[in-house]
């Protein structure tokens, strides 16, 4: 990673916490806007996970004759790709702030189960910038597709 990028990430990591600022704010509009951002980012990361598995890993396995049950594929940086993508999505979802009065942890649109941190079977995502609707599936079903 270039030094400038590393310095930027360190500055963000060591800077003030946006989540804490929003959590302490008495402005419900700020909390709603923050939660919408967290929801959108979590949904994007779920979509990214699906696309990565379906169009990168599964295609690679087919090409190389490997089993699609192998979830140990490593990314360019040596991280285990499936585990990394799931943990990134799950960490993002945990940043969601509950309703101030009820403490309820519920998405604006009821399409994400925060307890299981998996998209519900009936939900779908609109791919950004297109009219393509992607039906989400549980993580294990993605691996079983196309065989």
TrEMBL record:
GO terms under biological process: 'de novo' NAD+ biosynthetic process from L-tryptophan; L-tryptophan catabolic process to kynurenine
Q: What's the protein name?
A: Indoleamine 2,3-dioxygenase 2-like
Which superkingdom, per the lineage? Answer: Eukaryota
Q: Which GO terms describe its cellular component?
A: cytoplasm
Q: Which family does it belong to?
A: Belongs to the indoleamine 2,3-dioxygenase family.
MF term (GO), any: indoleamine 2,3-dioxygenase activity
Annotated Pfam families = IDO
Task: State the UniProt keywords alphabetically.
Answer: Heme, Iron, Metal-binding
Q: Which InterPro entries match?
A: Indolamine_dOase, Trp/Indoleamine_2_3_dOase-like
Where on this chain does heme b bind?
48
